[in-house]
Write a structure and sequence with these properties.
heterodimer, A: Ubiquitin Conjugating Enzyme, 3 domains, four-stranded antiparallel β-sheet, two-stranded antiparallel sheet, 12 helices, 39% helix, extended, B: alpha+beta, Ubiquitin Conjugating Enzyme, 33% helix, 15% strand
Amino acid sequence: MSNDVEERVVDEVEALKAILMDELIVRTNESGYPVAVETVVFPSTADDALQQYVCLTLVVELPSGYPDVAPVVSLRNPRGLDDSVLGRIDREAKEKCESYRGQAVIYELIELVKEHLTSSNLPSCQCAICLYGFREGDHFTKTQCYHYFHSHCLACHVTSSEKSYQEELDKLPAWQRSQHTLSPCQVLCPVCREPIQCDMNLLSSAAPPLEVENARQFELSDELRSLQRQMAALFSHQKRRGGIIDPEAEDSKLLLVTDTTEQEGDDEPPGPSLLLPPQQAFHHNSMTVSMGSSVPNRGDWRRGGRGGFRGRGSSSSHRNRHGRRHHQAAVTFR
Amino acid sequence: MTALPRRIIKETQRLMQEPVPGISAVPDESNARYFHVIVTGPEDSPFEGGLFKLELFLPEDYPMSAPKVRFITKIYHPNIDRLGRICLDILKDKWSPALQIRTVLLSIQALLSAPNPDDPLANDVAELWKVNEAEAIRNAKEWTRRYAMDN
């Protein structure tokens, strides 16, 4: 790579720094030469952040040989944008890189993204709570973390968070409850779990989202019926092989804990004995739910349903009984 | 019974239209809040080749509270107890209404790939998993072959 080319790239990055100032992050290699730039792009709204409903992080990697070699563009952390808009921006950015081969293109890319964000400066994603889109006339809320919810849906989330907080509080012994060290209820963003501030008066006055009101009713299709038959067949197959958990039998095992000589015959699985002391077993009773009248209570497989879901003594969360955290789930949020 | 919330309808439709590989979930004929689920054992795990039946119930205030999920097929796993109950944070205090049936089932599948004996629900299984992992994995494979295989 000639010094001349290197100098052009350094100049281009310097010019960008002058325009974007601390909004531009430049990554350099060991010798201080820029290898990538990154900036969060917002729609043009005369710098009124309240009017900015969408944003994304544009990352431009500068391969050796840039600008004669096209840079690698990636669009990260999109907010308020659905996949079709992102796909369009991505496509046009790649075209731009091709047509600007040999010339400085980073500023052009930023402008391109900005134009798109300005023209789709209304969340085109779905509300993560009701899974329906935002329509003209919908009341919606943008969180500080740039996630969107119908105000009505977010109000339900806030109410529910406050309710569970209160329930947890009620479980504490009185002396702990009266302490002022308890942190107040903090509502978290449903998508990224950042703490959010909400004006409940405003939220709770919002009407339910329009699209939800107009949604089609669900009907059981032939495809579903056929899947149901397959599942029923698998159930009977596994049941014949002794592979289905029988909650009542498991419960009685707990009661027979001293009688360890009793075997289940050929069905006894390998490994250590399943018998546990009762107190240990009750530590596991974390899924304490009363399903009420909606419990399906006929048919064979539903025995599991009754056993697993019925109320089992006083309810408390798994964390309280175990005194430790739950297993971390591998969930990727959008 | 009150009308089914639109969100449940939408999730059910999406589960059919864009199924998650290795996971199927079908609502019950008489109760659309009750799902029959099959999760296939992940590759390179002791549960590979197994078809595990689970039941999933969406409570009245879903998605504000988590679905109730339980294994129906026997499984040898340190975070799943003899009654099929699952130790998973997102099913309890880490639930968020932005999670869905599909993300919950994916997390359960991920739990099969990554058993965590340090946070056990089935103490005997977890103990063996810690002191003699090879034997625990042999047990898990044997249970899978015995109870969860299709043949």
